[in-house]
Amino acid sequence: MRPPLLPIAAAAVSLVLIQAARAAPDLGGQWTGTLHTIQGKCPDQSRSTLIVDHDHLSFAPADGVLVLHGKRGPDRGRLHAQLSLPGFDHKPVAMVFEGHAEGHAIAGMYGTPTCRASIRLEHPEDHPLQRALGR
Questions:
Q1: Short-list 32, 44, 96, CA closest to 68
Q2: Is 91 buried (19+), middle (13-18) or exposed (0-12) by CB count in 10 A?
Q3: Which domains does the chain possess?
């Protein structure tokens, strides 16, 4: 007599789903950090904000008016956002943010034709000094 396959298949699917949930970090919510210029001139004097909501994300460098929009990667641990605007010569000027989970933070790179910067973003509640100062 063969053992019933349905319970075995259900257990296997459950195990795969549990492993997938562990592999995909929860990146939802608001993240903040400061750009650190690697090359060129970057807006590194102010805080930048990343908001991740389900599959979509928004990144505002130096919390300015320009906002890069994008999606999470297929593995949900990779983030990509971009904005393309017409330049002075009518050619598109691309601004790109790439990020990934790194422990309890998000490590990322921001780039434009005149700037390349790294950034480490954390949840605002993870900034104890900022919380103490009421910011």
A1: 96
A2: exposed
A3: 26-132 (2.40.128)
CA–CA separation, 79 and 91 (whole Å) = 26
pTM (predicted TM-score): 0.74
Say if residues 87 and 94 touch (Cβ distance below 8 Å): no
What's the token pair of residue 82? Answer: 């971009």
Q: What is the pLDDT of residues 32-83, one digit of tens each?
A: 999 999 999 999 999 999 999 988 999 999 999 999 999 988 887 899 999 9
Give the residue from 53, 75, 63 showing the smallest Cα distance to 119: 63
Look at the block and give the residue holding tokens 């593995």.
Answer: 75
Instruction: Report d(CA 108, CA 101) in Å as an integer.
Output: 9
DSSP state of 2: P
Within 8 A by CB and 6+ apart from 131, the residues are 124, 125
